[in-house]
Amino acid sequence: DYSSSPQTDPQGSNSGKFRVLRGGGWHYSVSNCRVAYRFKHYPDLKYNNLGFRLVLSQDL
Prior knowledge:
Layout: E1 19-22, E2 38-41
Antiparallel strand pairs: 1-2
C-alpha cells in the first residue's frame, strides 16, 4: 500500500559519485535487460547501448 507515500518523485542525493541506471542495454545478458534491473554508473560516462527504449503496442 503506497497511499501514505508522497505523490511526487522523490529527490535523489546531492552528493555521491554514482547514479542509478535502470534496465540494461542490448548487449547485456537476459537477466540484466529486465526493467527492474538496477546498477551504479558514473554520471558522465556514455555508451551507445544505454538510453531510452521505444515500445510499440500490438493490437490484440
